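To: structure subgroup
Subject: Chain for Friday's discussion

All,

I'm putting the inputs and outputs inline so they're searchable in the archive.
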Amino acid sequence: SSSSLVASNYCVREFSSTRSNDEDCVLLEVDDCFATITLNRPKVHNAMSETVISSLHNRLKEVSELVKEENKSSIRALFLKSNGKNFSAGADLEYMKRLGEYPQEKNFEDAMQLSSMFNSLATLRIPTVALVQGAAYGGALGLISASDIVIAESRSKFCFSEAKLGLIPGTIAPFVVKKIGAAQCRRFFLTAEVFDSKVATNIGLVSEQTDNLDESEETLKKQFRQNSPSGMNVSKYLINEVEARIVTGGVSTPLRRFTAELLSKQRGSKDAQDGL
């Protein structure tokens, strides 16, 4: 483990970074109270090998720990991006070939590790933003679906490519179905067609198209800086709870009581008092 000093206008703190053998395949930077995780295998279009998946999971755990340590979190949001022309080509083909030779028990173990990585992104307390350039195929769409906000270049291309390879989008399915709904999944999982940013935005996979990712990132950071960290984090918790409870019980009296109770607690918080 190595130690890095993080300084910004908002906070100065030290954090340790656990590194894998291929320590540069997933980068973590904390600066100006924003965390950035970057996929860094541009020569292979940021394909996701077991090392990348493990490293991604470790980086997400580090961010989660930093958020917990910071008393309601001075890290305002996580940005997920990648180096090179393409966001990610999905699973590394060599890795997939190796998995095909494993017994089912080992395959199940591996699939659960992948699912856990996506879930750790989906359940992070702070806002998460995926910044997408070029192609995003297969497992990369799990990262996108597990993120709160997705900004994609207008020229980006997307594909649930698994069916072409005789596979299924298994571990990403819960996150994708939740994001875009079963009807859209029926089309795009079964056709495995390539679609563009306009279609991705229309079906809810992408929040916004842009011709300038850097500019869009700065705009979001500016907006996040103006907000109370706890206001954003509790709003995210509220959305997740309301969504889950509507699915199981509709707009019920217990759900309305829960939202009223959460609001009454937040009204009494220091951030709300300061904001008002």
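Points worth raising on Friday:
The CA atoms of residues 5 and 14 lie 5 Å apart.
The chain has eleven helices and eleven strands.

D.
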